[in-house]
Amino acid sequence: MGIHTADAIVLRRYLYRETSVIISCLTDRYGKLKGLVKGLRTHPNRHRSAMEPLTVNRIVFYDTHTSQLHLISQCELLAPLSQLQHDLDTARCAAFCADLVDTVAPLNEPQPAVYHLLKDTLERLALESGDHTNLRVHFIIRLLRLAGFHPQLDRCAHCQSPVTAQGFWSVRQGGLLCRHCLHEDPQADPAAPDMLEALATLAEADQPSPLNLQVLPLLRRRLDEFLQWRLDRPLKTMSVAT
Fold this sequence. Notes:
The chain is of the alpha+beta class. The protein folds into two domains: 2-80, CATH 2.40.50.140; 85-242, de novo design (two linked rop proteins), CATH 1.20.1440.120. It has helices at residues 88-104, 112-127, 133-147, 193-203, 216-230, and strands spanning 2-16, 20-27, 31-37, 56-63, 69-79, 168-170, 175-177, 189-190. The chain is elongated and about 65 Å long. The termini are far apart.
């Protein structure tokens, strides 16, 4: 049985029996993991954190090698990010980011870049007010790239030939179609060059950058369509996130 220490962002929190909680969290060193915190609800003073969703904590956990559920023996709150709850739109966007990570990140696979992307995005949400569409779009594109879920943009999603001329955006095919493969999805729309340029740029960008206000609504709509097609389960937070 190994013992490990990691910084962790709580993605979900479930009540377990009468005294304990089970959490899904993303750690900086060990990827996403699920952990049991015994007695947290009856003896909160034992721990320095309530392990609430969207908080950053330092945890100590045991790896039993017999179950995917780890035993968390210590947890200390590092950053409550309480500003995320100051307005409804910010809270919804933050919940969507955590929900998306919980859906696409595999268990027990180190993904430090995904951890830092989520942490940076939540910290920006906590500090910035107003419309979060630009930040949300960057988060989705970058996360899909890091997790290997991103749309195929440089080659036809059906025949794999380079798309050198007009490409067509196909949610059903998971990216661009060339003109010769348009029969695979007759409902595919011509892909706007400025949208494709924004997708390619943001996929490689560590930090969000200002986007053309004219392309932003189209980009968000295309990404939401892609997520609805690509994910195994629908995200309840997608329909309400800003």
